[in-house]
Amino acid sequence: MTLSLLVTKKPHYYSEASERTKNSTIFRPNRIKNTHFSTICGILTPFKSAPAENGNNGEDMMAQTQKENKRILWLDAAREIAILLVVLGHLFEESPVFRFAFPAHHVVYSFHMALFFILSGLTFSDRETRFFRFAARRARTILLPYAVLWILLTFWFLFVKKFQPLTLRNLGSLLWLMCGTSYGYYWFLPGIFTAQCMMYWLKRCPGGMPVQGIIAVALAALGVIGASKGWIPLMVLHLDIAMLGLPFLWLGYQLKMNRARLSRVYNSKWLPAAALAVFIVCNVISIRVLHEQSNFFFNLKISNPLLMVPSAISGSALAIWIARRPLVYNMQPLTWCGKHSLIFFGLHYYALWIAGYGIGKAFLHYNTPMYVSIPVLLLQFLTAVLITSVMVLLYLLIRKLVFRKRRTD
């Protein structure tokens, strides 16, 4: 997934290439040399608001960019929507009133991880002709931040929350968790890295789109079967989750490459209504009739693919449609957080803990009635988002000061 970098000096920017191929336009990363920064240390508003649409519904899906060397704002908005759904889902999981939040938790988990894989496919690019160079680039942007976040979370568990005593055996177990099954909230990062490496080879398979789609679905089925039987090799770098997410990543990539042919579908006024109808029907059946829980990406429990897959695709389509509205992608706080989505993702756990300790612990208990629980959960969610945003801002300020000092030295 093309996310904001945690440890690199400059963020990536994306703009549409001036020349188009026969079926698509390839996005090429660009770096802004003379960006105008108008707020504190040039962090809050590195770009101006995107111009509103003038009722041109025939506009190409990927053409909603600003002028040259500007980010695609609706993609930033879509990333932040996905991150907010992650925060909301984790808030529900740790709430003592989970029984009230279960339907909302089910709805969030029915599509939000698939949305990440689809967005990763929409921004997927393999300009490097050699696989090892491609993998090294992805490792620098995904696995290196993952290692940093894992070390921070390990320190938090051992010395702050004191879940386990500090012994060599426990450290060895934690090291296996880092390379294998992971723990905490960061399991997605090695999974998306592995899925992108698989996508590199998948798009080079002969036979074109139909054969590639069949291979992606077959690998997803194999990943689910292997995880249910406990195949240990599939745990390394979350290969099982990568195999399950590969069809969604491939779907996002195909939407990007064939957007000219599908422009009428993208801009159809019936698309959001149809997606919403499918999404509601699938979730109502899952919750009210089958009493299922759609946390399928982490525990890979797929009891009914006929409900899971349509719910994941329709929910992702709705989120992307919302992100492409001018009212949404013109919101600078939203796109700013989306630009730094990886940092936001890495720090939200600590913000949830602070908000839960200060608000949830004071007002939420197992017997708290629903009319009290819902407003408190909403307040806790908004507090966690605000705290995470402040933490991201502080990190960016510190990073900017450090790099400025290095340049002066």
Q: Would you kindly provide a brief summary of this structure?
A:
The protein is mostly helical. 64% of the residues lie in helices and 2% in strands. The chain has helices at 73-93, 98-109, 112-122, 131-160, 168-179, 188-202, 208-228, 239-257, 263-266, 271-289, 296-299, 305-323, 326-329, 332-339, 341-363, 370-408; strands spanning 13-16, 27-30.
What would you note in describing this structure?
By secondary structure, the protein is mainly alpha-helical. It has one domain (70-408). The protein contains 16 helices and two strands. The chain has helices at residues 73-93, 98-109, 112-122, 131-160, 168-179, 188-202, 208-228, 239-257, 263-266, 271-289, 296-299, 305-323, 326-329, 332-339, 341-363, 370-408; strands spanning 13-16, 27-30. A two-stranded antiparallel sheet has the order 1-2. The chain is globular.
Keyphrases for this structure?
two-stranded antiparallel sheet, single chain, 64% helix, mainly alpha, 2 strands
The backbone outline, from C-alpha atoms, is: globular
User: Would you report the number of β strands?
Assistant: 2
Helix and strand pattern: EEHHHHHHHHHHHHHHHH
Helicity range of the residues?
55-70%
Order of strands side by side in the largest beta sheet?
1-2
The domain tally reads: 1
Q: DSSP strand (E) fraction?
A: under 5%
